[in-house]
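Complex record, two chains
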Amino acid sequence: MHPAFAGLVTIVIGVGGCLAYFWLSNQFLDKVLFPARGPNAGRNINRANQIRPWLFLFPALFALSLYLAYPVIETIRLSLTERVTQSDGSTIYQFVGLANYAQMADDPKFWEAMFNNMMWLIVVPALSTAFGLLAAQLTDRIKWGNIAKSLIFMPMAISFVGAAVIWKLIYDARPPDASQIGVVNAIYVGLTGNDPVQLLTVPFWNNFFLMIVLVWIQTGFAMVILSAALRGIPEETIEAAIVDGANPFQIFFKIKMPQIMGTIVVVWTTITLVVLKVFDIVFAMTNGQWGTQVLANYMYNQLFVTRDWGVGSASAMIIMLLVTPILIWNVRNARAEMRG
Amino acid sequence: MDNIAGSKSSLTWAVHISVVFLVAAWLFPTLGLFVSSFRTADQIASSGWWSSLTSSEQNLTLRAGAPDTAVQEGDLFVIEGNLFALEGVPEATVANWGISARELGAFEPGDTAEMRNGSLMTVEANGDFRQTSETAFEGRRGDRIFLTAAVPPDFTLANYEQVLLSGDSTDSMAKAFFNTLTVTIPATIIPIVIAAFAAYALAWMDFPGRALLIAFVVGLLVVPLQLALIPLLKLHLGIGIGKGYLGTWLAHTGFGLPLAIYLLRNYMVGLPRDIIENARVDGATDFQIFTKIILPLSFPALASFAIFQFLWTWNDLLVAKVFLIDATGQTTVMTNQIVELLGTRGGNWEILATAAFVSISVPLVVFFAMQKYLVRGLLAGSVK
């Protein structure tokens, strides 16, 4: 069967199955289980309406529990166990306490990943938010701002892998006597006359070359959100400042910034979440070599290269722990909002 | 509003220039990939892509016609032709030329030079040459001419043919393209269907535990999918799904649901209460209200999420690597194909750039076509 056709059939079955569930289950509830006729019509309608929310929710709750909630629990368990293959070929998971965590703590690669991740956590959200704010503020003031915005926003649609290829071309280095096809080295060699540099292998700084890729992608996101927030600022506050003789910089830093602080925090945390999970960029560009390891790629290596599920799960738990403060903060905000 | 109170300041120019600079900086990387995908391997390796947009001075070494193409004109043996046409290189304008590598540019177009074998060579600006000799030409190959020529921009679709149509299994993106599509479409539609029902229940139905469930969804929004890899792979292998499309769709559905439910619920809560209560009074069931009223009204939110999920599943590498791609490699997706090309053909930029551009072109089209909904979704998802 041609792959396109096979794909089409599976699409129809998958989507059709979903729609069929909702339609059939509701039909079953209304026509068979609690029909809205006969002596108990009134009570049946009530009963059906009590059950219906769960009918509506069931697939979602099932998928959420199975695909997100259960893995959290299971990962905790796996991080405390060791996979042992027994003599008859079966595998069991032996409880080993915190041994996986201890083993991880002895691994210099892990600490390299931790250190790099912390740098990512500071640099990427900060630069993305700063550039986003700058772009938002500038583009809001000009006629062709919307076109400019959409072009700055565009990298958002590009996959991390695609971005990795794009930036590898930029960082490319040719032998000293050949003409440089990577723009960074072309400029560097042109200006200084030095030999070209393999940028992705330069210790420490190569981390920043990788971070730039994510900043490039995330700036558009920050810009869109912050631009909406800037437009939401009441005009009176700005007019009052202008009347009082404030210059544009004062207006921006003293009047506008404080009023969009809440949004800046939201943007910052959202990008933080992206950073914590960053995998593709590092995987495609350096695969953690030359001191560029990050947690997500470290975990991937443990899981699928070293095949040590215990340590892999332990490092996944570290990512989870780093996310937890944001999780708690989000949940509290959501609850406060619903009450208010 | 910045223009009131006479503040049409000198900053306006600075703003325009800064924005031009920002846009250029953000566009430049993608443009480089795009331009490179239309260049041949030699062009990419010999000059930066930025220089391909204008005519460039290049040093070319071309061979004149071979001795066996000579014709006799009276006493003279003559070889005539066009240097560019003979070698199959695109036409260019000769700036100057020479007959040895040590004396590049010794002659102007139209000049006549005496070759080492005693023959006379004339090269015109358009590459036409005429080589004459009083004795018969010997040897197998033509003489070498060293040209400095202004080569006009030259682009080719050959890379796209190679990547999309050649069927070469290492380079081919055609199969990966369909595989990606097969992953993406159900993985976008299924979570929408599931989440829409759930979001309606969470927005407009009364039942105990609703607030708790909403908090549950908000909490799951940020759970890193890294945690799910091993437990779910174990589960899939355990219940016999193994690695394949089904498992991938389910995984994408699970990972996309929190955002879908959250976005759709937020949107649905904002729909006017009157419409829904009137429908209830008229005897519509929740199922009817949902399909006839809520779904059509929620179109903007559905579109927003659809774009998110589409971009995310199309661009995904990790989920595909873990849940889809097995040892046979038959189900590889484009992102994975590109990573493999990075490994096997790291220096072949023409293939890499083209493959990458094929993979990002679809999201870019979707992005520009539906940007409005994407922005709306982002705003609904993060600004409260």
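Note: Chain A touches chain B through 121 residues (CB under 8 Å).
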